[in-house]
Amino acid sequence: MIATTRTRILEEAAKLFTEKGYETTSVQDIAQATGLSKAALYHHFRSKEEVLYEISLLALEGLIREGEKALSEPHPSLALLRFMEGHARFFEENHAFFVTMLQGIKSLSPEKREKTVALRDRHEANLRTILRRGIEAGVFRPVDVALAGRAVLSMLNWMIRWFRPGGPMRAEEVARGYYDLILRGLEREGA
Amino acid sequence: MIATTRTRILEEAAKLFTEKGYETTSVQDIAQATGLSKAALYHHFRSKEEVLYEISLLALEGLIREGEKALSEPHPSLALLRFMEGHARFFEENHAFFVTMLQGIKSLSPEKREKTVALRDRHEANLRTILRRGIEAGVFRPVDVALAGRAVLSMLNWMIRWFRPGGPMRAEEVARGYYDLILRGLEREGA
Fold this sequence. Notes:
Helix content of chain A is 72%, strand content 0%. Chain A is an all-alpha fold. The first copy, chain A, has one domain (46-184): Tetracycline Repressor, domain 2, CATH 1.10.357.10.
């Protein structure tokens, strides 16, 4: 893929937002990192918020695609595993975009925030569908799907706080560990 | 308890850090919220960072006390339940302190950061002890205690992103839901 100027701006901005935080990154910082003048940057994006918004949309659309691939897997346990692996892999491969999206939501204007929240809800709804199908198929216990979905996403999303790409473990491996834990539970059968 | 000036400063600062973020809150903002002059505030704390540090220490010491109460419960499953309830209850009752502590660590100087990380590690070590005892007693499966501990803390800590005190549900109830899920797992026995 040819990295267009627009793409380069988004990538440099996502890195800066992740390292320094959105509030403390200036348009000047983004222009400098991309090797552009502020005027050239404003040719591509009207504001810093628009950069944040586009990063968030791209991250969420990518995540949703992963979730939808998992949804097409007919066996509920395997679908859950694929969902968790896909979410974790996407996070690792698109680290700065993912972190920016998760941390940036509070800095968006109400209208843009509403649209990103709707995309997040769609991703979460896909997970709930997998859980619901598992319950209907008698594979999963009749748990509260909202609570269980939240538990799964909490484990995966909290990885932004401690997981660093390029370390000894792949994010997907962590996700598989969490999957085994949430599927089978801590308690020894018959204990 | 008589709210000393020092306590009032910490409380107002924690609220501001939670609402506006640490970086965007000024010493002037804290002084104003507490009804003090900047000079009076500097009489109590040498810097904004010192305020953040004291909030973080108080939050972590409180959390550790909750964890240690749980640790004194001999039955492993009950100890885990108490740990999760205690963590969630402390979070709800000390919302601004807890959120400030979790979000503020990256803004601390290396030396202060090291000390807060050591306290967090101590809290996590207490949880791992509970899990290890459960495995040794044959109550829990022989899971990776580091991974399982991380899963539990991820679920509880991610609550800072969505749970608001004063809503229809207590944080402890959410913790009990997570406990049931992590203990028994999603999979129906014999499925």
